[in-house]
Amino acid sequence: MRTLYQGATGTEVIELQSTLLILGYNPAGIDGIFGRTTASAVIQFQKDNGLVPDGIVEPITWGYLQSLITYHKIYIIQPGDTFYKIALANNLPLSELLAVNAGIDPYKLMIGQMIQLPKHAQPTKITVSAAASLQNSLIALQKYYALRRPAIRLAFNFGASGALQQQIEQGAPVDLFISAGKAQMDALEQKHLLINESRIDLLGNDLVLISRKDHGKVTSLEDLTKATVSRISIGAPQSVPAGQYAQESLMRLNLWDSIQPKLVLGKDVTSVLNYVETGNADAGFVYHTDAQGSTQVKIVAVIPSNSHKPIVYPAAVISTTKNKQAAEDFLNYLQSSDAQRVFASYGFKT
Q: For 207-307, which CATH superfamily applies?
């Protein structure tokens, strides 16, 4: 959302007006125009909360509005929502949800409409175990999801997909798993640890060779065999999908045997990126998304996609989850056009 000043128009103003209305500050109509009546409602809200005592309309930012929505337990209606589904996803008695929204016709909910959740409602915690390469994008999406589902608290566990797989097999309390490789998800499926019908292929990625921006030793894949290049980092192939893809590509390109003595193995792609950034490796193999998020490395080469298996990020709800509906709702959100645009902005293939 842009910073909203008096005179602004559009859907963002409608969200502001809807929020003020639910909080008890009637902007005298929801028309998408930040006019004098909306300004008066903003001024009154700010006065009541000790924000601006002199009656000046301060700019309303997206973060500020989001904090209001979260704090005051406001829920924004999404496509397909019903009061029953909202109550189920937020662990609320349906009768209580209907009671606090007595003035709203439950059969005429509109997308973008805001309703009130009971103030005492405890947030439902969803634990998501996800490949380390997803960390930046999922953290970004977390704040957007808080706006849509204020009664859901997302807890992330990032790491190598193989390590996360083992944790789930050993009984770790996980609701949703997003892997950077199919093998780890296949292993869980074979052990009946997934809700199979929830499994999807969420994203794709590219494998790239990187070096430090101030490092001139490596300008191509072939340079990896030179004596001047002494340390090359990849993820440990036994547990890190990016390492498996790197090994597969290097073997197909007839480079594996010559560079194997130079390898520095990382526990995940984040470790590999760190080794290159700090100069502890002359070069490394990471995902395009990891390289894009770093200011200290450059992409030397994009690894040919036909030299390794397709890079796919499968996702599925874990069979032992105690929050099946909430986990499925979050997975559905990750497939939405809004979420996919965020993933794409971090370099993922959607």
A: Periplasmic binding protein-like II (3.40.190.10)
